[in-house]
Amino acid sequence: MSLSHVNEQNQAAMVDVSAKEITVRIATAEARVTVNDAVAAQFDGRDFATKKGPVFQTAILAGTMGAKQTSSLIPLCHPLPLDSCKFEVTFEGREACIRCTCKTTGKTGVEMEALTGASIAALAFYDMCKALDPAMVIHGVKLLEKTGGKSDYKADSK
């Protein structure tokens, strides 16, 4: 198996998707943020606010903006029109779990958009809460699932 973004001369190259079929493509990614007790105590099942404003809503807006700008951030990504970009933010103990699902109708997948959306949302979450916990750790950024291309993917549920 060869890398998709390397040409015959072993140089970085954008993948030619001109011959691919247009299909609905969906990808979900997640990022996790481990927080201290002070941040975790703010969460009561709903969004919470810091002096900067509502934490989840700000993270979701930043994540959406990031997903829409993926091709500007990742050099070999195709610019994609997103049909949908949705987020779910939950708390599991002292971890914020941020999931981003992106959808497009096109010739290439939206994995990078979902990964970028989840990552940028986690960074915005950090920015909103850093006064309460400057030692937060962003981790576990991963693709959970993708459908619609020549091969589907679903991460193990570990």
TrEMBL record:
The keyword Zinc does not apply. Keywords: Lyase, Molybdenum cofactor biosynthesis. One of its GO terms (molecular function) is cyclic pyranopterin monophosphate synthase activity. It catalyses: (8S)-3',8-cyclo-7,8-dihydroguanosine 5'-triphosphate = cyclic pyranopterin phosphate + diphosphate. Pathway: Cofactor biosynthesis; molybdopterin biosynthesis. It comes from Luteolibacter soli. The keyword Lyase applies. InterPro entries: MoaC, MoaC_bact/euk, MoaC_sf, MoCo_biosynth_MoaA/MoaC, Mopterin_CF_biosynth-C_dom. Pfam families: MoaC. Coiled coil: none annotated. Catalyzes the conversion of (8S)-3',8-cyclo-7,8-dihydroguanosine 5'-triphosphate to cyclic pyranopterin monophosphate (cPMP). This is cyclic pyranopterin monophosphate synthase. It comes from the Bacteria. Gene3D superfamilies: Molybdopterin cofactor biosynthesis C (MoaC) domain. Residues 14-149 form the Molybdopterin cofactor biosynthesis C (MoaC) domain. Its EC number is 4.6.1.17. The lineage of its organism: Bacteria, Pseudomonadati, Verrucomicrobiota, Verrucomicrobiia, Verrucomicrobiales.
